[in-house]
Description:
Blueprint: E1 14-18, H1 22-34, E2 38-42, H2 45-54, E3 62-66, H3 74-84, E4 89-94, E5 111-115, H4 120-133
Parallel strand pairs: 1-2, 1-3, 3-4, 4-5
Helix pairs in contact: 1-4, 2-3
Amino acid sequence: MTSPSEGSPQTEAVILVVDDDDLLRRMLEMYLSRRRYKVFTASSADQAMEIAQREKDTPIDLLITDIGIPGADGFELARRFEKLIPNARFLFLSGSLQQEFQLTEKPAGAWQFLKKPCAPSEVGEVVRNLLSNGRAP
Length: 137
């Protein structure tokens, strides 16, 4: 259990983690859940959109997605996601920084890019900042 001084959110934000790497997806789910975020997970773009549509009454605040996922790349998923949830924020993950520069149509909402591998604590810090003020450190 984390204490408020460890950065637990005051209110429960909703996060969708999309990655086809089962281990990373589970690790992020556990890490973020312990910090009192409500976390949904998906292994593909199609599964992520199904969750987003099913959870319309509980809008997703943040989409964390790998760039290379089945069904659509992470950038395309963000564009589709943004149509459904216009105020969402985005955290893109990739093993290559070159992919950051392929983002030609940036999401309207706040977004950040992290290179994999990254520690859960690093993801947690970016998540906290994106949700609190829309910017990563």
